[in-house]
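Customer escalation, tier 2.

The customer says the design service returned an amino acid string that "doesn't look like it belongs to this structure." They asked us to rerun it and document both sides in this ticket. The original structure tokens are below, unchanged.
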């Protein structure tokens, strides 16, 4: 593997360990230190997510206009680190909202900038596979960070929670410093200026694909919100089953992500892979329905099978999404297009938990059937929309 990939992989490992430290401790810290209610925290995070979502194309376009795009990724990484540490200084709800808003924006900008660097530093045939390998590294890092966080949180100390957040800030700083070791991806001075950032918002075929891909990323909300609620409310299983299902998902993701990416090397292949993603996730919803009618031991076995299907939906959606995101970029607008592509999954991050709680879990019989039917419809729509909107020549020349 190239030195460039090794630097990116090391950066991904460090930052994902930091994320594993941060996620379990953050909400507990906000509640204990600032005395915020769950609704206040949720509202602040929703506003931050919406702002980052709407600003994603513009945040990515900054990379497109830079002479040395690597430096923009470094700047976003430094800002992300500073915003994370600033959380520890927030002493009022107003300050908390402001810091979280900045944190959401720079986190999205950092992610898009690193994806753009993959587009600039690797040939088209290697981009999807590179992202798959990096995601595999990320899953390993998050698992390690979460394990360390669990050990550190055993005392229940607010100071311990703060140290975990600070640890994530240090990890993000290390990421920024590691990115300095990448080639600058310098653009020639004679190269034409990229289109304005909002040009991507007029690319209707692309935005249609973005929305469909966002719908297929519902697997995230099903895993993080739907399964825990289903386990505890619908089948009455012991709570330890939830982390066991998470662990199953993580291990399978590490094992399967690169293999799934090998089937999404071109945009046309990626569209077909996304069809399978929707079908896998739809089948996982049906296993949840079946589990509610079985004895506990059989229900647990069916839910494990459902997690296998859900993970298959996750890894194929990620691979197909990368294949389309990189394959449908037009002109010299890598950052703007990748930022816009992230809007689909960003919408799912905002709406997915509401859909899962109100429909999938809230309607224990009709909900899984409705969700599975909707996912199946989107799954078949993706290749149909792709082949109708993009000719083979058009994709090859983009």
């Amino acid at each position: 593997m190239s030195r460039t990939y090794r630097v990116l992989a090391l950066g991904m490992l460090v930052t994902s360990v930091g994320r594993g430290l941060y996620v379990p401790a953050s909400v507990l810290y906000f509640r204990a230190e600032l005395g915020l209610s769950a609704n206040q925290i949720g509202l602040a995070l929703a506003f931050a997510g919406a702002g980052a979502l709407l600003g994603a194309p513009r945040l990515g376009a900054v990379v497109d206009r830079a002479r040395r795009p690597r430096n923009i990724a470094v700047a976003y990484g430094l800002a992300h680190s500073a915003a994370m540490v600033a959380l520890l200084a927030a002493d009022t709800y107003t300050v908390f909202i402001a810091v979280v808003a900045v944190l959401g924006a720079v986190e999205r900008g950092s992610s898009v900038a690193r994806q753009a660097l993959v587009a600039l530093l690797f040939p088209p045939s290697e981009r999807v596979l590179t992202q798959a390998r990096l995601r595999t590294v990320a899953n390993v890092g998050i698992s390690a960070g979460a394990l360390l966080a669990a050990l550190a949180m055993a005392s229940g100390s607010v100071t311990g929670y703060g140290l975990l957040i600070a640890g994530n800030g240090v990890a993000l700083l290390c990421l920024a410093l590691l990115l300095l070791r990448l080639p600058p991806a310098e653009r020639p001075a004679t190269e034409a200026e990229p289109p304005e950032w909002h040009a991507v918002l007029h690319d209707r075929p692309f935005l249609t694909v973005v929305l469909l891909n966002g719908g297929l990323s519902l697997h995230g909300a099903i895993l993080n919100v739907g399964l825990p609620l289903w386990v505890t409310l619908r089948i009455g299983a012991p709570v330890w089953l939830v982390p066991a299902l998470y662990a199953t998902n993580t291990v399978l993701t590490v094992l399967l992500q690169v293999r799934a990416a090998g089937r999404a090397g071109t945009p046309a292949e990626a569209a077909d892979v996304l069809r399978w993603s929707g079908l896998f996730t739809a089948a996982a919803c049906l296993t949840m329905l079946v589990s509610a009618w079985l004895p506990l031991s059989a229900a647990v076995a069916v839910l494990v099978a459902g997690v296998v299907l859900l993970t298959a939906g996750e890894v194929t959606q990620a691979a197909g999404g990368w294949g389309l995101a990189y394959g449908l970029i037009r002109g010299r607008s890598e950052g703007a297009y990748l930022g816009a592509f992230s809007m689909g999954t960003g919408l799912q991050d905002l709406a997915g938990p509401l859909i899962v709680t109100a429909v999938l879990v809230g309607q224990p019989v009709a909900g899984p059937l409705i969700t599975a039917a909707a996912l199946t419809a989107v799954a078949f729509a993706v290749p149909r929309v792709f082949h109708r909107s993009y000719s083979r020549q058009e994709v090859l020349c983009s």
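Tier 2 assessment: The sequence is consistent with the input. Residues 21 and 164 are 5 Å apart (CA to CA). The longest helix spans residues 3-34. Sent an explanation to the customer and offered a walkthrough call.
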